[in-house]
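Changelog entry

Holo records now carry the ligand SMILES as an explicit input line rather than a separate metadata file. Below, a converted record for nicotinamide-adenine-dinucleotide, shown in the new format.
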Amino acid sequence: MNTTMMPVIESGFEALPSCLGMSGIQGKRCMIVADENTAPLFAEKAREKLQQAFSEVPVYVLPAGEEHKKLETLDGLFRELIRLHFDRHDVIAALGGGVVGDMAGFAAAIYLRGIRVIQLPTTLLAQIDSSIGGKTAVDFDGYKNMVGAFHMPSLVYSNTAALATLPAEQFTAGMGEVVKSALLADAEYFRFLEAHAAEIKAMDLGRMTEMIRRCARIKVGIVERDPLEKGERALLNLGHTIGHAVEKAKNFELLHGSCVALGLIAASSISQNRGLLKETDMERIRAILEAFGLPLSVSGLNAEEILSLTKSDKKMKAGRIRFVLLRSIGEAFCAEDVTDEELRSGICAILRP
Ligand SMILES: NC(=O)c1ccc[n+]([C@@H]2O[C@H](COP(=O)([O-])OP(=O)(O)OC[C@H]3O[C@@H](n4cnc5c(N)ncnc54)[C@H](O)[C@@H]3O)[C@@H](O)[C@H]2O)c1
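Structure line, unchanged by the conversion:
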């Protein structure tokens, strides 16, 4: 497996040709895979730059949305790759959010047993998280990311200016993952988010770029040390176990990042009940989530339902749940001894009658 490289973070597509050149990525064909929202916004601009490195740059448009992240959606893409005689020297460029990145990445992982992929992420979540680390997948029979492969991108190029068109709720959801990264790995980064919340919310390009660069660096560091998720990488699941359960119980009506925010509060509350996290830190966590417009509680759910969904999460190991807790802001660890009672109390911390 290739090492994980730091994404290139720019505020336009202008530097893309030189980055391709420096990474030795050129050839005959590069298929841009976008979705029906990102294609009209960015495909032409990206194509113009990719044409400096490739002689043919066709565009393939996927339907947008998680509901299309499945094997059948890839059939048409494979047919197109075959029709255009794509071979092992050719490249796929994933232009979009995490859904496009995961699907195009998975297609690249299995087409001809693997061709190169470059990631051109256009959502906040994709720029700080999903484009980094080589996890690719599609959903299967209602199970998220059930069928996939590890396939490292040859280049990740984030154009932060692309976030200007991102719907506000998508930006907010991405902030759930940003706060998660700070909480699990970097107290100083958490302070940076506290200090600059207003500028980040106002989409100040300089601050946003700094935020994205620092967040990407956290993920790159973790993936470098544990590329196949045998240990430390599991810490990235902070907030996700109860978060996923809420997501399912709410029939996916709440955005993933909002559910992660709720999961962060639940995990923090369990950590506090264990005497690890101080009350003042708990308050800071609530305050930062609130500052970015993320939910602190959810209504219409009951604790037992969330508990049973939490225990059916795929992060179970030999019947025990692997749960990420906090020792303090910036320091997470995996616990396999979290009891049902503790889970219930964490869940109750986010339920509104
Ligand atoms: N591979 C990983 O390591 C990893 C990590 C985290 C999440 N994921 C996956 O990421 C997916 C979620 O990704 P997401 O949150 O980016 O959602 P998404 O890809 O569905 O994008 C959200 C919406 O925004 C639109 N969009 C994208 N960029 C835009 C832009 N710049 N302007 C306007 N609209 C834009 C998309 O078309 C879509 O409608 C999930 O499937 C999740 O499983 C993967």
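Spot-checked after migration. The chain is about 45% helix and 20% strand. The radius of gyration is 20 Å.
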